[in-house]
Amino acid sequence: MAKETLSQYLRNRLLLMGCILAGVFSVLMYTVYNWGLDDSSEHYLLQDAQYAQSLLAAKQSLPVNNNNKQYYLGVSALPDNYRAIVDSHLERVSKGIQYFTFQNADSFTYGIKLPLNDSISSNENLFVFHRFHFNEGDELPGMSIFEVAVLTLLGVLLVMALGATLIYLRVIKSMQALQLFSDQQCLDTACVKDSDQQRALWSMQFTEVQKFALQLQAALQKTHNQTQKERMLIQGLSHELRTPMAITSVALDLLQKKDLDKKVKDKLQKIRVANNDMVSLANTLLSIWKNEKSVSSQNVCVSSLILQIIEGLQSVHLPKGVHFKMAVPGGLSLLVALAPLKIVLENLLRNAVQYSEPGSVYVGANESAIWVENKVSTAQSQSFQEKDCSPSPSPGYGYGLGLYIAQQACNNQGWQLVIESGSFYKASVIVSPNAIM
């Protein structure tokens, strides 16, 4: 059983994708934001420095310093807090234009060092500083990081909403159409219109899904046709058996009226029992074909029924070295339909004898189940291994009527047929729905 549905899988993956995209976009936006802030600050620094340079070239004084912008000519004119930082930068780069940044407890400062022409001032540098205070009343250029994060999250949510809508319309609806198509295949074909199936098939917008649906339809149709053939065979077989069995029954009645030897009468009695078994078999096959449950339940003495079946097997053929061991309470009775139970047990016991190693065939029963267990012959065990059928037996083994008929006989009565295969083969008929083996 799958741990999650397709909708749960898509929802979880969309949420994960959204978190990843939000993180990636936030990092990218933060990086781009800082790049833009630095570039814009450096641009305005250079612009102010060039303006101050033009004033010096015109023999005018530098602009007046204020809380946000300061202008200094030469390192000696720098305040002490600026000089230590500038000196460390000048040690690394002594020539050309240089930008630097630093911050303290209440402000963040961008600075520029602009070398002056000899015509203005020999071997002097012009320093310009832009200070941005952290006070709430001072507005920094551009958006804050919080605003960037909120906009990014809103964008990701919008993308996720659009993506989820498209995925739902294409994938989820396609899966729903496949489920509807599958449900239609499980219904009676006469109750489902071809137009409904074509509509469901057309709703599967993916080629792979449509191909799977058509393969499913073909497989179900093949299984349905095969089942119909089996049911027709069972129907024909049950009707064909009734005619000779009726004739045999009439002939036995006529012979019973004659004065015959006791040995002959005993043989005729065995023939009558076999004939009655065949009639029960025909009736059971017919009920399977009609998918009807036998309502003629009666109290069946389990030990007597099993002994009767064993006696019949011993009179026909019993392989050398094979014998029966019963673990059935003598007074155990079950309220069940006799004919189906007898047919199933006859086949289980017959095939247990046929495919068993020399030794015991164990027969047991309790208030909820009857089981037959035998050691599988070496040849049959090798056949299982070659066909890789473990732990399930091959359909030809264990049931004279075939696996389908035996299972149907149990299913029609509300029983369970449980097969356990290994070195020992065990078949259990659970006649109580609440039984635990």
Account of the protein in words:
It is a single chain. The chain has 437 residues and is an alpha+beta fold. The chain folds into three domains: 6-142, Beta-Lactamase, CATH 3.30.450; 218-291, Signal transduction histidine kinase, dimerisation/phosphotransfer (DHp) domain (Helix Hairpins), CATH 1.10.287; 293-430, 2-Layer Sandwich (Heat Shock Protein 90). Helix content is 57%, strand content 16%. It is built from ten helices and eleven strands. It has helices at residues 6-57, 80-92, 145-186, 194-203, 207-256, 262-290, 302-316, 338-354, 378-387, 403-412; strands spanning 69-73, 98-103, 107-115, 125-133, 297-301, 322-327, 333-337, 359-365, 369-375, 416-420, 424-430. The strands form three sheets. The chain has a five-stranded mixed sheet. A four-stranded antiparallel sheet has the order 1-4-3-2, with helices on both faces. Strand 8 and strand 9 form a beta hairpin. The protein is rod-shaped, with a radius of gyration of 47 Å.
Mind telling me the C-alpha Rg? 47 Å
Low-confidence stretches: 383-400
According to CATH, what is the class of the largest domain?
Alpha Beta
Number of helical regions: 10
> Which H/E pattern describes the elements?
HEHEEEHHHHEHEEHEEHHEE
Fold blueprint:
Layout: H1 6-57, E1 69-73, H2 80-92, E2 98-103, E3 107-115, E4 125-133, H3 145-186, H4 194-203, H5 207-256, H6 262-290, E5 297-301, H7 302-316, E6 322-327, E7 333-337, H8 338-354, E8 359-365, E9 369-375, H9 378-387, H10 403-412, E10 416-420, E11 424-430
Parallel strand pairs: 6-8
Antiparallel strand pairs: 1-4, 2-3, 3-4, 5-7, 8-9, 9-11, 10-11
Helix pairs in contact: 1-3, 3-4, 3-5, 5-6, 6-10, 7-8
